[in-house]
Every structure is written in structure tokens, then in C-alpha cells.
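# step 3/5: fold
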Amino acid sequence: MTNIYSGEPELVDPYADVPPPDEEPAQAAPSRLSTIRLSDVQPERVSWLGPGRIPAGKLVTLDGDPSLGKSTLSLAFAAIVTTGGTWPDNTPCAFPGDVILLSAEDGLADTVRPRLDAARADVTRVHAVQGVTLPDGTLRPPTLTDVDELHRLVTETGARLLVVDVLMAYLPSGTDSHKDQDIRRVLSRLSSLADTTGCTVLLLRHLNKAKGGDPMYRLHRLHRLHRHRRCRPRRDARRQGPRRRRSAGARLHKEQPRPRAGSLDIPAHRRRRARGGSC
């Protein structure tokens, strides 16, 4: 570039905008743990939406096998809350209000509304979430990541009960339902919503297909199904007679790890034999 006044070329520093090498980019402040002294926490009594069963402002799960009436029962709860009716033990509902419904399995017109009418619910106080409106006017299916919108809806309607039917249908994409960390990440925000608004969040869940045992452990899907598949006899063994099935069961028993000597799982006389003693 030439200076038009002096006629001499003008020198331009190509590194004028480059920061000096000794300047380091600003670093973000490190994150810190937030704590509170228990002396600053005021003790509170648990408030009950349904006495002894459904606490107010908490996460509540309703678990059971399919087709046992979980959805019908949750709509009966909604009817009691919307009308301020009485619970099965003749206790009046202490916190009547509106109900928000997330239903992924039943039609609103042919199933949900008839069930609410049969339960004598105040349907003007039941709000069914159909989707999330996008900027172009279309609807996308709601998920449990839409906590901010759910919080706004709970606040606007004064809802006392939020029903999620069923939990698995509203988990966001990318959530592994077999990982506790993923589930806790989703439920922690719902728990905060329930705590700040006083609205009870009722989550409906299906048990897995494993039969027998404590139903509590049928909720851990990956662990229980993995054990069930690993202990399942081979298909050709199941097609044979009783003797063949017994031998298959014996092989499965042998595949399990053998307890070491001295373990509490081994009877006393067998522990003495393992140590070389007499019976």
C-alpha cells in the first residue's frame, strides 16, 4: 500500500492483531460444591396427597405388570384430586386441584375420557399434554427433558398431580434405561419440579417379564434379564423328556461359580471336609 501524500509505501504489520505469546486465554472459574448447614434447614412434616400412600410434592412410582389397571387407577386418583373427593379409606383429599396427564398408551377420546367420566372426575381440570409446539407450528412428542415447560404448565394451572403413563415412553432419546446414572439425571429435575411446586409426580412403570421373586428386583431390567438369559436351558434340551431337562439343569448348576471354602454359603460339615477334617 502506498501513502498518497508522501508517495512512499506504507508498511503494514501483519502481526498487529495477534496477541503477544505471553498472554494466556482466560480460564473459566473452577466449579465448587454447594453446601448448606443442617442447622439452616427447617424440619418439615410430610404432607400427604393420599394419606400414607401418595406424598404431596414428591416423586411416586406405580409399578405392575401390564393390563392390571395401573392407568385406570391413576385416573381414579385424578378424579379424586379434581373433585376434592375422598380416598378409599374415606379420608378427604387435602390438596384438590388440577391434574396434568402424559398418556402415551391410551387414546384420549375412546379410553381416557370415558374412564374419567366413569370415575366422576371434573374433566375441566384435567390437562392432557399432546406435544411441544415448534417455531413452525408443528408438534413434536414431549419428553421428560421438557421440565421447564412442565413447570410453567403446573404453575399456570395450579396442578396438584402430574401423571406420566408410562415412564419409558417419555425418556429422552439417548437415555439408557438400564443405567442408573441416566435415569437419575432425568428424575432429579422432575424431583426438583415436584419439590418447588408441591405437585406430586406419579410415574407408571411396567415390570419385566421375569416370573417369581420379589417384584422390586423385576424393575432392574438389564441385571435381571441378563441373569435370566444366562440361566436359560438350551432350546434342544427343553424339547427333550424330563431326564434330558434334569441333566440340562444340572449342567446349568455346575456352570455357576463354586463358593470358596470357609464361605458362609457352605454348610459346616462341608467346610470341615474342604479343610481336610472328618464329618
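# step 4/5: annotate
The radius of gyration is 31 Å.
# step 5/5: archive (pending)
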